[in-house]
């Protein structure tokens, strides 16, 4: 029986984070340091788990030439990996594409960076003396196939040019691409690169496809095994929750029928982002904004206590949504109340530093939303129309696609970043539908219902 164990990581995006506005110096420093911290935590994971090698599926840094800090940090990282005898197999993505830092990555003999055409490296890596004497060369345990991007926006499907002889007992493919089963996704869409379909992977004898580009960790299918490791560190507020590395182990792989691939996720990101809704219950008897503030503080602490606390996380940044119906809905939207609540929340002492990026008050006036569709006036007509839309996901999706590039409207109604082509799209569509319909209801009530 042979056993294989490797770490799959991706999308570190060193020197990124502009989408999160840096509210103050402390937050700015933590945002900047986060991906560097994730890299240090990866090294610690390597010391603990002793993987045989690492596969990296692209976007190690944001764009252009590596900063001096990134160079120093990566140099330390690769040198430490060398002392641990861990090779690093690296396919470039659309951000860190070939032609930007080529000579830097050639400095490390344990870094195997793929070229713009499909090729493979063996594990264990062949040593110089092996190539001089072919007969002494030991058979590789594993072949790692990969291809790198050479442009910021790759339109082609790399799998069209792929072939693989599967000479090694275990074969890995490393690819940075949007994998989608939906025909609605086009390779020219924003955020889509090197688009391919799930079925395109079926014809190759690859045991594990290590994918990058989509920042949400996901196992797309198990045969052949297709997995996104997700970003090692969140790069925007919408990438909520823990981020990290996937440890892959495979056993019995000489007999393919008994082959079993096991994956385990390890959180590494020192900074996590969250989106949290706090709802003011209808029957809460809160007479003034002071009592409302206490209520939301209590509600936040209660929700926060339920979080899974990853010990490597030092910073948690929240977008908060205040919901419910209350007579004080106008006062609760005032800047003074919001700022007061924000500073009280940021004073909470916990295992990690809490920052509140944004508080959006969505509290509505007391209004009989549930029965509005029974009214025989214009407002009732609008509510009936919204109800039909609620039950028609296809029409809704077509509306959402029209909004896709309208960031002004999307920001206004909190639709956030639209996820392309991955497994979460259905869940996300559902969330967007609820948000959009609620926003429509509110606008109509405010316009049509006299106070
Ligand atoms: Mn990418």
From TrEMBL:
Keywords of the record: Exonuclease, Hydrolase, Nuclease
Calcineurin-like phosphoesterase domain sequence ranges: 5-217
Name of one Pfam family that matches: Metallophos
N-terminal signal peptide: none
Domain of life: Bacteria
Entry annotated with the keyword ATP-binding: no
Entry keyword annotation includes Endoplasmic reticulum: no
MF (Gene Ontology): exonuclease activity
Name listed for the protein in its UniProt record: DNA repair exonuclease
Organism for this UniProt entry: Taurinivorans muris
